Amino acid sequence: MLAAARKDLLLDRLRRDGRIVAKEMAAELGLSEDSIRRDLRELDEAGLAVRVYGGALPASPAVADYATRTTVATDSKRRIAATAVALIPPGATVILDGGTTTLAMVDALPRTFRGTIITHSPTVAAALLDHEAEVFLIGGRLFKHSAVSCGAAAVEAASRVGADLFFLGVTGVHATTGLTTGDADEAAMKRTLASRAAETYVLASEEKIEAASRYGVLGLGEVTGIITDVGADAASARELAAAGAALVHTA
Q1: CA torsion sign, 190 to 191 to 194 to 195?
Q2: 175-224 pLDDT tens trace
Q3: Cα dihedral 180, 211, 199, 147 in deg (nearest 10)
């Protein structure tokens, strides 16, 4: 089998099974594990898979550029956003992560909400201009891929705030790798923000479930809940629950 055909087969298996075990694939195809690992390494470098110990996981489509992400899973994001907004009590202090699902939350948030919104996303802050909520914008180096502030200055500023709720965006939610994202500085910022809130909820639209990215943010059991519209009876939902995730399903 030619290398290109092997890679196509590996991608099909990732889509079908949600993971590849290099040893098992090598035995199935009658190839060496080194050959499979080399293919997986090249798929990883191309952004099509994420290598993990013993094999690979599907790469998250949520690491695409910002403009592209605004067109991905829009209905799912609206459902997630509506469920998230329903968790916010009147007058609460809320941290909103950056991303397209938090923008959907702003759309769903009543303009008469009189709590406080803290965010490191200038895009989210600008979308709140017509709301009655107080808005605090955390500054720092702008990470353009996600339109958020990151880096040492942003982490320092974030470490001085406190909130009732944090709504966390990630690019991957997987039973094996937990909550992941595609940039190390962004992952550090997300961890800092989570540490400043009494409760953290993950916004997990459909394209993020059973996907993984390079950098770990938190473990599944380190957040209050994962808001998802994946059905409770789905295999992915059962795997996440078995791995310690508390799932909050949309209506």
Answers
A1: negative
A2: 989 999 989 999 999 999 999 999 999 999 988 898 888 899 999 999 99
A3: 60
